[in-house]
Task: structure prediction
Amino acid sequence: MTGETNLDSAQHRVTSADPGFPRHWIADVLASDGRVVTLRPIAPEDAELVVKFHEALSDRSRYLRYFGPHPRLSAKELEHDVNIDYHKRVAFVAVLGDEIIGIGRYEGLPDDVGTRSAEVAFVIADAHQSRGLGSILLEHLAGAAAENGIETFVAEVLSENRGMLMVFREAGYELERSLDGSVMHLKFAIDPTDALLSVRDARERASEARSVRNLLTPRSVAVIGASATPGKVGTAALANLLAAEFTGPVYPVNSSHRSVHGVRSYATVRDIPDDVDLAVVAVPAGSMGEVFDDCLAKGVKGLVVLAAGFAEEGTDEGRAAEQRIVHDARRHGMRVVGPNALGIANTDPAVALNATLASVLPQRGRVGFFCQSGPLGAAILREAANRGVGLSTFVSAGNRADVSGNDLMQYWDTDADTEVVLLYLETFGNPRKFSRIARRVARSKPIVVVGTGRTGVLGQAGADEAGSAVVADMFAQTGIIQVVSVNELFDCAVLLGYQPLPAGSRLAVVGNSAALNRLSTDKARAEGFDIAHAVGLGPAATPDNYREWLRTMLVDPEVDAVLSIFSPAVPVDGTPFAEAMRAAVDEFPNKPVLASFAAAEGIPGPLAVRDERGHPVRGSIPSYSDPQRAVHALAKALRYAVWRTKPASQVVRPDGIETDAARALVAEWLVQSPDGRWLSDLEAVRLFDCFGIEVVDFREVVGPDEAVSAAEELGYPVAVKATGEMWRQRADLDGVRLDLATPDSVRLAYDDLSAISGQSLVHVQRMARKGLGVVLRVRDDPSFGSVIQFGLSGMIMDLIGDRAYRALPLTEGEAMELLDAPRAAPLLSGYRTLEPVDKDAIAELAQRISAMCDDLPDIREVALEPVLVSAESVEVLYGRLRIGPEPSNFDVGPRRLTY
Result:
């Protein structure tokens, strides 16, 4: 391999254009201030930039790095620094534009006491220190080192270099420290421990949240392509910014006019005299090149690209143009919303940002909304305004080339002004990361998701039954509230945004319509509620009747939630009734109260509790045109509340796992088959053994005498099984002979099976204990990554799709939930004449599969079927494994932004 050449001779240079250059190490990353920095391996052509970087360092920074004055690099040092082998000697540069702002490197050390070690060091430009770049360089160096088989880093740091010591101390590694005079010696293993991953995730969360905050709280905005011509995108963008009374300066950019809408305009962004934080780009895709150069030169921090004509066109040219925009923006520290975006908004009066094409924004509230579709985003904003649902912030990302729903969830998780998260998704981007973030955010803030195809609209084209089941199970696992329409989305939003979660399933219904009361109670029972009270007030009910009965229900300890129905038979003034309802709720605010108030939707004025600015706040009573919709929304909230009360269990790793041996086996097989393959039955057994998964003992034989010998070795009785794909799972068992107890029966079985299968290879297996058959499978799901499936075995169970799904890795609680999820699960706990089976042993088997797939990302498929389970044992009769290259969207390795 080219990268293994000794470069100290200076006769060979691996440039960034050579095949040996590790391009997969190139990464866009977020600094702690939310700005983008590019990391890449160093190359010989960086020599001049390295010299400039070194000379620009302060005397203090050079002293701390080199332990003494070091004003310039010698030719030999420079040659050594930029010519590396990408194996034992690795260096990364942090780049902003055409400038190196940080360098990190490791140098392999001679093996001592069997440890593969390297010395690590890095230095950051003075102007960019305290941006978290040291920890990012360390993280990516550790990733490269692990890839190259290095296990331990050592470092020498001057004891007075507090900043560098802090980087190592806060990195999450377990440090061994010793002091020699003024030099601190550090040593640490670079294995990704739980503590290290926790630190990585916390830094990722903080930096991504900060990057979104930079977009949503700009101090100044430029509108490029601003116009006064009706019907143009630039006209709407500028008008909406001005109408919202954005608190900072707005700069129209128009080369043909000195002012637009009475505001001084500029020919280019470069001409604006002051700093520009955010640029709203409203020019055609073909004009983006020059405009983009201007933004980069001006140092704009973020872009909202409203222009269309990119990847949504479905052309290679459009996709390439979109990637160029994101690449160039990130290279200069910027993030991009769009292209083809509707825009972004922040209703905080201290910001008052409407950088969207929607002229109507909902009022201030505590609901955050992310949407991929521009046209649908405009409709959603109108619907939110019509229903009185207040938003904190809104982002419509269009093609979502850069900023994604994951970024917004990270921001809303840290935003005290957002209590509910709404997502309209067409794709997940990075599914593992989505699941990881959603699971954490949902612990404190409800997440409601609606989407198309595989992301959530059940029964829609592209969402087959199995795919819909996976989506439903994955969302339930992560605490996400899944809905199937925008109407249902807002039905949930008005409840979650303004009322508390129900503490239980006991519902009281109070109403003046007997028919609607009956419909509501029937719907409630179907949704799993217990009807604590159903109070019919009659058509002559007064406001005092409502107040007293609602008060009675709210103080009743046997009631968890109340539905109030006001449907007058003749037109009457509803205000006194609304005031009566609101008075009762104000007195007892700890239980959710929903209304069907004269068929009004959302937060009707009479039912709203308002703040000093007149905006509805918590305590407002949501109303639904149909009380059955209210019950359905409450059922969604109840299931979420139950999920949230469950303790957050940890991923379990059973004893007896030999990960290193397993990785060595997979690496060996992938060298032989780089594109992947199904493992042979014996290879699969070897890999299963590494994780304590025991397949019932069998032998492969190629003749009747070998079959008899195998049977005698295993011990009678045995089973003889034909091999070959078509014989493995046949319901008619034509390829299997069971309970064979004599040599003659084994010979006869071998002859029969080799004849009908046409193959001389046959399996002889010890007879397993009798039990109930179950199936455990793992596959890569296009939306969620590795997904484990569980159900009872058999053709009928496959036909009716009685399977449960969970994303990997499994926590302790999720493993048991997986077993209890199928409709046939009661059979495992004992049903009629069946005895209960050992469910704990099945859960442990699922955890071992989870650990295997988590430790070995090159596993593409696993199938254990059938597995016979009983009260005494869990026996795997057959197991299959497929390995192959890891999908690029998995959430593993050092932090990086993806496209």
